[in-house]
């Protein structure tokens, strides 16, 4: 075997290893984020919500993550316990009976398991499911911002409304509520 052949093989192996590493990084799935304290993601934004922590009346019940979910309920036109559409006055970051009822309404509309909890299937449907009968559940990339806090501007298209929000350079989601920007935190509620 000549030195030239050995070098060529080593070079090919290095290039193949680097290419495989780059592909693995670009195709990395969203990482579980409840443990990080925020609704967050990496790589494609189309799979960021499917590994989030479960929101319910007993889990992260008072949090900005719940507030973000409530804005999704509003955008989707989910029905609250009295049969009227979920509205802005219902968005307070507290996962109570009304939010549970609206979640069940949306789960039913999306034809997924109805339990009133926002687990991987429900939250994941918000970024991956296009519901042809309601026209909701779609994320759209709008562009990049000029700061780390506004790295990726996204739009959530619900069946009734849309809203814009950001994913920061570090992957944390930020949304606008009551004229203030909030990080979608599992550990604090600034939406009151």
In angstroms, what is the radius of gyration? 20 Å
Q: What is the terminal-to-terminal distance?
A: 73 Å
Poorly predicted residue ranges: 1-31
Order of helices and strands: HHHHEEEEE
Q: Biggest sheet: strands, sense, closure?
A: 5 strands, antiparallel
Sheet-strand content, in percent, reads: 5-15%
Q: What class do helices, strands and sheet pairing give? A: alpha+beta
Taking strands numbered 1, 2, ... along the chain, how are they ordered across the largest sheet? 1-2-3-4-5
Mean pLDDT level = 81
Helicity, as a percent range: 25-40%
Alpha plus pi helix count: 4
Shape: globular
How many DSSP-defined strands?
5
List the helices and strands and how they pair.
Blueprint: H1 3-26, H2 64-76, H3 97-109, H4 120-128, E1 138-144, E2 152-157, E3 162-167, E4 173-177, E5 180-183
Antiparallel strand pairs: 1-2, 2-3, 3-4, 4-5
Explain this structure.
With 192 residues, the protein is α+β, with helices and mostly antiparallel strands. The N terminus is likely disordered. A five-stranded antiparallel sheet has the order 1-2-3-4-5, covered by helices on one side. It starts with a helix and ends in a 9-residue tail after the last strand.
């Amino acid at each position: 075997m000549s030195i030239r052949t050995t070098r060529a093989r080593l070079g090919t192996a290095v290039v193949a290893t680097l290419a495989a590493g780059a592909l693995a990084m670009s195709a990395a799935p969203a990482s579980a984020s409840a443990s990080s304290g925020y609704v967050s993601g990496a790589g494609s934004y189309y799979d960021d919500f499917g590994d989030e922590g479960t929101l319910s009346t007993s889990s992260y019940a008072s949090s900005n993550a719940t507030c973000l979910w409530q804005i999704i309920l509003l955008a989707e036109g989910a029905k609250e316990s009295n049969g009227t559409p979920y509205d802005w006055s219902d968005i307070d970051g507290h996962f109570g009976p009304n939010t549970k009822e609206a979640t069940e309404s949306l789960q039913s509309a999306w034809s997924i398991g109805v339990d009133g909890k926002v687990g991987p299937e429900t939250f994941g449907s918000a970024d991956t499911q296009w519901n042809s009968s309601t026209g909701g559940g779609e994320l759209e990339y709008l562009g990049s911002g000029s700061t780390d806090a506004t790295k990726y501007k996204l739009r959530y298209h619900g069946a009734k409304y849309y809203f814009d929000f950001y994913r920061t350079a570090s992957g944390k989601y930020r949304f606008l509520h009551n004229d203030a920007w909030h990080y979608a935190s599992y550990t604090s509620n600034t939406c009151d």
